[in-house]
Amino acid sequence: MEQFLYWIAMLIARIHSVIMDLNNQFEYYLTDKELHFIIMGALGMIMIFVLYPLFKWLAAKGRIMIVTFLYVVTVIIVIAFAIEIGQRLTGTGAMESGDITSGIMGFLVMFVVFIAIRGIYHGIRNAIRRRRYNR
Description:
4 helices; 87% helix
């Protein structure tokens, strides 16, 4: 997981360099804030156009747990990064990628346990319903 996060950080750094080179090459000379405004706005809209139909389809199929998981895991990742950045800024701890991966893995493990318990509950409930129906 740590290597994956490092790979993403390096990919973002490369994309940033390409955007800055294009900005200079075409002599736009947009400020960093203007570039963030344009890129994040465009990225957000692309995500809306992709995720809205996907989430709508999942909801129509009754897969609300998948939609919920995707939302929560996204928020957990943002919170994990925010905590580490906050620790760096306030000096209350060391900013380490291992802390981020541990936090995300904590959520994933607890979610798997939750899904297992939920699956057992639904399995028992469905078995009882089938047994009553077959009588």
